[in-house]
Specification:
alpha+beta; nine-stranded antiparallel β-sheet; six-stranded antiparallel β-sheet; 22 strands; RND_pump_MFP; Efflux RND transporter periplasmic adaptor subunit
């Protein structure tokens, strides 16, 4: 009887120990794979633009100043007038120069008559060849004197060097002017120029003949088309910028020289791998994506380029044709098993 009681106690102790052990270590539940959607990457050319800003200037522009000191005798222009090349703008007093020209022309005629007489006497032996040569030289010298007198006279007539629009004219007849006096300005604004800097890294994606839409900085201004006509031959050392020169057809006078304009230059497109921005994981300054390999995901560091809407360019880390997590990104970890419930392409 005692043996039975002892056996019963042992059995109760064993059962109690087994219950405590099972309570302390419950059975491990199986981890289910995380449900995700994936996208298959492809190469696309994203549109990229760079901002431009600068001040337009005339294709031809000069300050009109006299070649010589003098007194104004006549003013042939008014402010804002359109003139053509060769038009007389301002006349300086030229009475002295006209008199000098007449004197030198008379001397030339006299020298030419003397030259003729000497040449007729040479066959008769009345003069020597040396006398002939001297009179020929005298004629040439006097012709030069006439040309000098004519140039001095022409210096008093100030003419337009090209077609254009005259600036402000604040002159009076009788006014004394010098070589340093600005009489007015002249601009040929039918074609405008614009020099703008861009980063030299874009050089391979810019070419002449590309067009750009520009607008003056004030609101509601008209849009104008410009064309890249030249790319500078050197990169500026400190900024690493290169300058572009743009040409603007301004025959309709939409722009005034000196206007500040802005625009965006569309770069030549180049294809690269793209992925949805929703597939990008951010950790500090680094960017990651989760690449699908069989039934697991792999965390991959990526480098991004430009962004266009919901797509971002991948410059390193991924290749076209690979699949990355699109939805379910916050639930996955490196090496985790996953279940793909939907697939799509970029």
């Amino acid at each position: 009887m005692k043996m039975l009681s002892l056996l019963a106690v042992v059995i109760v102790l064993i059962i109690g120990w087994s219950w405590r052990t099972s309570s302390a270590h419950p059975p491990v539940a199986e981890t289910k794979p995380v449900a995700i959607t994936v996208v298959t990457l492809s190469e696309q050319a994203l549109a990229e633009t760079v901002p431009l800003q600068g001040t337009v200037f005339s294709r031809q522009a000069v300050e009109i100043t006299p070649e010589v000191d003098g007194r104004i005798s006549d003013i042939k222009i008014r402010s804002g007038q359109q003139v053509e090349q060769g038009d007389l703008l301002v006349q300086l007093d030229d009475r002295h120069q006209q008199a000098v020209l007449k004197r030198e022309q008379a001397k030339l005629q006299d020298t030419i008559r003397h030259q003729g007489n000497i040449h007729r006497l040479l066959p008769k032996g009345a003069v020597t060849q040396s006398d002939v040569d001297k009179t020929d030289a005298d004629v040439q010298i006097q012709q030069a004197e006439v040309e000098l007198a004519l140039a001095a006279l022409e210096d008093r007539a100030i003419r337009a060097p090209f077609n254009g629009k005259v600036g402000l004219v604040d002159l009076s007849p009788g006014q004394l002017v010098s070589r340093e006096t600005r009489l007015t300005t002249l601009d040929d604004a039918t074609v405008l120029r614009l020099n703008v800097p861009v980063a030299s890294k874009y050089l391979g994606r810019i070419s002449t003949a590309q067009t750009v839409t520009l607008q003056q900085t004030h609101l509601n201004s008209d849009l104008v088309e410009a064309e890249i006509t030249s790319i500078d031959s050197r990169v500026r050392g400190e900024s690493l910028n290169v300058y572009l020169q743009l040409s603007i057809d301004n025959r309709d006078s939409k722009l005034t020289p000196g206007s500040l304009v802005t625009g965006r230059l569309k770069l030549t497109e180049q294809a690269n791998v793209v992925l949805p921005v929703q597939s990008i994981a951010y950790e500090g300054h680094k960017r990651y994506a989760y690449r699908l390999i069989d039934d697991h995901v792999e965390k991959v560091e990526i480098t991004l380029g430009i962004r266009d809407g919901d797509l971002a360019e991948v410059t390193s880390g991924l290749s076209a044709g690979e699949q990355v997590v699109h939805q379910g990104l916050v639930k996955v970890r490196d090496g985790m098993e996953v279940t793909v419930i939907a697939r799509a392409g970029v």
